[in-house]
Amino acid sequence: MNDSTKGLIYLVGLGPGSYGNLTPSARDALRDSDAIIGFHSYVDQITELVQGKEIISMALGQEMERAEKAVDLANTGKTISVVSSGDAGIYGMSGPVFKALCDRNWDGSSPRLETIPGISALQSSAALLGSPLMQDFSAISLSDLMTPWQTICQRIEAAAWGDFVITLYNPRSIKRTHHLLEARQIILKYRLASTPVGLVKDAFRTNQKVTLTNLGDLEQTSDQVNMVTTVVIGNSTTYVHNGHMVTPRGYGER
């Protein structure tokens, strides 16, 4: 796909992690690439598919370093895959790569850029829970590394007031142990304690765990939540039926 004069950057979404959920387009991009750049654990997911290629694996927090390296290599005419878990455009590497390009006054065509969508964490989590995203929903990251916590709280409040189903990314880390509980307190101002909550850890991976609870009991299960957990909080119409979390397609349906 790459010609001899222009480099190419693929922004590749790997999906939840299992090969079965990796799209054919993602496989093609990885196969056609000269080098693969990504966070350690994401690169480890695809080792069997990228043997013989240059592998550039970096630590969490080095997103801009990964993006800069991708642009540097693409500018030499190489084809590069920058990989992200889930979808590259949802809390992934699309943003850092576009920033790196724009900071260099990118002309929009050299190097070329192609985004390969992947199955996002909210999609894979919803599939395991049942049918929780049938109405309008929001995705909010609880990580305050890039966004002030006050701003995140305002977004949680707006989503709760608007009766959106809420999916929370990056809900709890070793250093951020209270953000999820603070988010819960905000949402409880607008929702009943009985509102269903789904916790999906390592979706479609070896250590997958799916837990159903509710807003009232979330405090007792919050210590089970970490950075690879997606939290899905139902709206006023969401219910649980025989172990499945269901949001009806419209209000008034059940």
Which helices and strands occur, and which strands form pairs?
Layout: E1 8-13, H1 24-32, E2 35-39, H2 40-44, E3 54-58, H3 63-74, E4 79-84, H4 94-103, E5 112-116, H5 121-129, E6 130-131, E7 137-141, H6 149-161, E8 165-169, H7 179-187, E9 196-201, E10 209-214, H8 218-221, E11 229-233, E12 239-241, E13 244-246
Parallel strand pairs: 1-4, 1-5, 2-3, 2-4, 6-13, 7-8
Antiparallel strand pairs: 8-11, 9-10, 9-11, 12-13
Helix pairs in contact: 3-4, 6-7
Low-confidence stretches: none
CATH class placement of the largest domain: Alpha Beta
Q: Give me the CATH architecture of the largest domain, please.
A: 2-Layer Sandwich
Look up the CATH topology of the largest domain.
Methyltransferase, Cobalt-precorrin-4 Transmethylase, Domain 2
CATH superfamily of the largest domain: Tetrapyrrole methylase, C-terminal domain
Beta-strand fraction estimate? 15-25%
Distance between the termini: 50 Å
Rg, please? 20 Å
Mean pLDDT: 93
Question: Would you mind describing this structure in some detail?
Answer:
With 254 residues, the chain is α/β, with parallel strands linked by helices. The protein contains eight helices and 13 strands. It folds into two domains: 8-119, Tetrapyrrole methylase, N-terminal domain (Cobalt-precorrin-4 Transmethylase, domain 1); 122-246, Tetrapyrrole methylase, C-terminal domain (Methyltransferase, Cobalt-precorrin-4 Transmethylase, Domain 2). The strands form three sheets. Strands 3-2-4-1-5 form a five-stranded parallel beta sheet, sandwiched between helices. A five-stranded mixed beta sheet has the order 7-8-11-9-10, with helices on both faces. A three-stranded mixed beta sheet has the order 6-13-12. The N and C termini lie far apart (50 Å). The relative contact order is 0.14. The model has no long low-confidence stretch (mean pLDDT 93).
